[in-house]
Amino acid sequence: MRAAREAWFDGQLSLDPDSLVFIDETAAATNMVRPYGRSPRGERCRISAPHGHYKTTTVTAALRTSGLVATTLFDGETNGERFRAYVTDTLVPVLKWGDAVILDNLPSHKVAGVREQIETAGARLS
């Protein structure tokens, strides 16, 4: 693992910044309220929050030096099947030959078919 990390760092100097494509997700849920708050002494701190039916929304996007591309919105969390569909339907059409796609260690990024779809577009997974 250490050798692979050092090879990645050494190879960064030859990368073209305009060919880098970073993929990441962010999510918001309706039950995301602060667990603590402030109020005047002697008064109860109150906050309104939805009760019962919680909803999670996930945004997945690709970032280039020119800005965001291949943005999609999921109703719920990202899983392997949804991420593979995102790569096939949204990311691959905007990839250029020679692009380097950079993913984090989210388990849904490691499902079968993701690497193959990216490489079919002429890009590489870094």
From TrEMBL:
InterPro entries per the UniProt record, alphabetical: RNaseH_sf (IPR036397), Tc1-like_DDE_dom (IPR038717)
Domain of life: Bacteria
Record-annotated Tc1-like transposase DDE domain positions: 20-123
PANTHER family the record matches: TRANSPOSASE
Protein name per UniProt: IS630 family transposase ISMex30
Annotated source species: Methylobacterium trifolii
